[in-house]
Amino acid sequence: MISAEQVKQYIAAGLQCSHLEVEGDGHHFYATVVSPEFAGKRLIDRHRLVKEVIATRLASNEIHALSIVKAATPDEWEKLQG
After folding, report:
1. What is the sign of the dihedral through the CA atoms of 68, 25, 53 and 73?
2. Exposed, middle or buried, 12 (CB in 10 Å: 0-12/13-18/19+)?
3. Residue pair 20/31 in contact by the 8 Å Cβ criterion
4. pTM listed for this prediction
5. In sequence order, what are the beta bridge partners of 29?
């Protein structure tokens, strides 16, 4: 069974992240991803970027499901943290 830490490592290996949190039960995972690569991109495109990074692992069912809780740029994240 895959761990949340492994999913985090997979995402971080393919996407520059200034903040990354992943939680899950071994099958379903939830991620908060903060990346400068999201600048100028719509929310759907941000989600696609993250999913593309782990696409082969999703296709092979190593990761059953990933929900992206938040996909923000560093500036947006800073404002959210207030």
Report:
1. positive
2. middle
3. yes
4. 0.93
5. 24, 66
Task: Determine the residue type at 44.
Answer: I
Structure tokens at 42: 């719509």
**Could you please report the per-residue DSSP string of 12-54?**
HHHS--SEEEEEESSSEEEEEEE-GGGTT--HHHHHHHHHHHT
Q: Residue 27's pLDDT is what?
A: 87
Tokens 């500036």: give the residue: 75
Average pLDDT over residues 11-28: 96
**Nearest C-alpha neighbor of 34 from the set 63, 6, 11:** 11
Query: Whose structure tokens read 């985090």?
Result: 8
Q: Looking at this protein, which amino acid is placed at residue 61?
A: N
Burial of 17 (0-12, 13-18, 19+ CB in 10 A): buried
The sheet with strand 28-34 has its strands ordered as 19-24, 28-34, 65-72
